[in-house]
Amino acid sequence: MRLRPNSLIPPEYNAYYLHGEDEDAIFEAAEALLAAGDKQAHRLRVDINELARIEEASRNQGLFGPSTCYALIRNAQSANPKQTDHLLRLSNAVLDDNRLIICAPGIDWKKALNKKMKAQSDVAECEFGKPDESSFARWLESEISKAGLDVKQDALLWMAESLCGMRLAARQMIERLSWYDNGRGAEIGADVVAELLGERAPGALDEWCHAVAMREARAVGLARHLLRNQQVAEVQMISWLGTRMQQLLMYRWFASQGDRNPLMAAKVFGDARSKVGAESKAWAGAELSLAVKRIVDAEKLIKGASVEDNITVIERLTLDLIEQGRLSV
């Protein structure tokens, strides 16, 4: 059965197949389906090569066993023929009160899995098409309103144009705007949005991000140059660096899953497309997760959670990221 994206919640079916070009919207809907329902349910997030984990949760007593269980499969578009057959069997064996959510962003419409899943009468199918700018702008305006922010209309439209389709990046941007506003409720114009999105930035800012991503010692000198000589706002440096490290993290994940185009899947754009591959080799996966958390913590300090000088916060952040072993301390 075919459903519209706005009719997925509240959940009414045991199995869902989510596909289409809007990857962020697919995963947002999938997480909402996973979260809804029994608070005590066992929740699983698995990749296509981990289907056995779903069956293990059943303890050989049906698909999920006697306890309520919800499972989310993140990358069904990568399924080989054997995994496709396995997935079809699972989708037809979901017991009452349990839930199976199958995500296949960017799947080829001719692929066997896509055709067979759409033909399943007991599987709720929903396609997320590529978002147009106007619908994305409406979604963005709604999210900004929920965050209690007052963003000028021209700035909002500019954000929608710059971030169209990238819901995760938009949510991160809204979070940065919230830290900037700090509960004042002040009107936020295009000048602030441009600073946080990095549209107004010296070339040395991208060079600094690259040096940090490559874990090079020269990153410390570049940070000092940006802060002391070019007077770049600390929040802009955090915004750029946070985006780059998120891109590295997602690139590594998609590459490890055998994605045919991890750069596109990770939404790497601009000059970063020629650098992220080399930068990712400087990090272990666990280190990247710690790096992203460390950047978030530094952003909080800059927004008033510390009495330390902001320049000191940025310089210490740079050292923590480029020196081996400091992130685990």
From TrEMBL:
Leading EC class: transferase
Highest taxon of the lineage: Bacteria
An annotated GO BP: DNA-templated DNA replication
Membrane-crossing segments per the record: none
Keyword Nucleotidyltransferase assigned: yes
GO cellular component terms attached to this protein's record: DNA polymerase III complex
Similarity comment text for this entry: Belongs to the DNA polymerase HolA subunit family.
PANTHER family linked to this entry: DNA POLYMERASE III SUBUNIT DELTA
Entry keyword set: DNA replication, DNA-directed DNA polymerase, Nucleotidyltransferase, Transferase
UniProt xrefs under InterPro entries: DNA_pol3_clamp-load_cplx_C, DNA_polIII_delta, P-loop_NTPase
Signal peptide: none
Gene Ontology molecular function, alphabetical: DNA binding; DNA-directed DNA polymerase activity
The protein, known as: DNA-directed DNA polymerase
Protein source organism: Mariprofundus micogutta
EC nos: 2.7.7.7
Reactions this protein catalyses: DNA(n) + a 2'-deoxyribonucleoside 5'-triphosphate = DNA(n+1) + diphosphate
